[in-house]
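Thread: quick sanity check before group meeting

JM: Hey all, I'm pulling together slides for Thursday and realized we never actually wrote out the predicted structure for the chain we discussed last week. Dropping the sequence here so it's in one place. If anyone has concerns about the input, flag it before I start.
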Amino acid sequence: MKRFIARGGMGEVFEGVNVTNEQRVAIKVILPSLASDPAVIEMFVKEATVLERLVHPALVNYRTQARDPEAGVFYIVTNFIEGESLESVIGKVQPSDAEVISLARRLAEGLGAAHKLGAIHRDIAPDNILLEGGDLDRSQIIDFGIARDIDPGSKTVIGTGFAGKFNFVAPEQMGAFEGDVGAWTDIYSLGLVLLGLAQGETLKLGKSMFEAMEKRKEGVDTSGASEGLRPLFDAMLAYDPAERLRSMEDVVVMLDQISAGGAGVKTGRGGSGKSGGGGIGSIPRPALIGGGALVGVLLLAGLGYLAFGGGSDAGDIAGGGNTPTVVDAIDAATATRRAEAALAAIDCHWLEMSVTGSPGALRLNASGVAGQPGIIEPAVFDALQGGGVSTDFSGVEPVAADNCQYMDALRPFRVTDSTILTQPQQRSELQQFPADFQESVLAGKMGARFTFDVRIDEASQIGLITVDQGEVESSVSARANELFPARLRQGPGHYVLNAGWELDEESWAVIILLEGGSEVAAATTAFGNADYDTFNQLAESSGLRAHVIWHHFVDEVPD
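JM (edit): ok, ran it. Output follows.
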């Protein structure tokens, strides 16, 4: 190693030299505290294994991965890129429409090659695009990171799913549209990057998740771009992913049509395009700092996202060429069965799973909570055995280990598609209740409220249990019409509860409704006393069913 370059949340980057050919390289060293975690290393190995096959001039080249047995560190070696980031030149240059189109085509083709291998970047931003030698025609995308930061305490835009930047994330990365992330997500972020370059100023699209989401709902103002480029940006920046360009091939087709003076491709799910080539323009080289070009190899400044998929038998991509073939593609039922079998062998999780797509291009989506999300996704991925299935666990959030015991006790009796216990939203923002708040116990205090619905036969015997930060707070059992006050009744068997919670930091609350068995009262008491063996016996013998909702109290909007 020659010198230190940068430090990030997962490790450090150094400049090095290949002793066999004297070529400069960048060395991404994983922090020792993370390198000792097998789950972390497994993810990094998968990252490098997939990315070593991504050969495209617009993508940083991953050369190798290795572990130093003496130093006990794991590292990944990539090309060394010397030059400015795109962020440093926005506003300093005035590129023509043709130059913006050329850059857009280069980056879109590079991302398209990555997408074909199941790798979604999810952190496309100007600082993750380096201009080798300061030239647009030598731009390269960096930071295809691992699936997520493993540290459960880390703050990201949405749980542990994304470490991107508020100015450039797509709406679905913040939970809109059921968090449906795909190629269209990178398209949105790339559109924001290119729009900033074209108009000479990066858009200010929010410093918090709330502000960022509101600005996107209002629609992105593309009036600062030229009339010729505006249709492109409008198509890339549609708020609804279904109305957006859906693939990088669609982006390239629209670029070609704009260059030829024609109309763009149809946006939304009906869009389909074919890859095209083209020359790349350049901008004047930026001013040198201290006699040398500014080095911009910040591979760990912000981690992207890699959705691993397609199995180890997919073919290679070279310059956006042949589409990889998938060996032994499996169907959705098989994918679900294998995933469920893998989950059955792992403790401490409460997950919902769905499979979308078609055989050979399936995606297994998971959401919910888990004590160790970093262990679960690799296990599920391995169980899929390739089969043309990618995994997206961005909707899985970590919870403290003190939730595990009761989570494991409930899981055999869970109802996964409950209509009896539901909630309109899964998150509530912390706030300070006013001094004259109607509920005096909360007046003037920090806390949050959330609403949930119960729809059940009013004569049913049910048990209601609340859990806060892993501790059972209350446990009661009665008939529904006796348990809930009449003022909460919205109709026959329908009750709406608006619960208030006193707390001053981010937290999870859990509502558990037990029904369907003759031993509901006894099971509820056993659960409340943490006597899970007795609970399990009663629940199993009486056919009890558990309906559960998890609610996240967050502190994301600045006070």
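AS: nice. Residues 412-554 form a domain with the Immunoglobulin-like fold (CATH 2.60.40). The radius of gyration is 26 Å.
JM: adding both to the slides.
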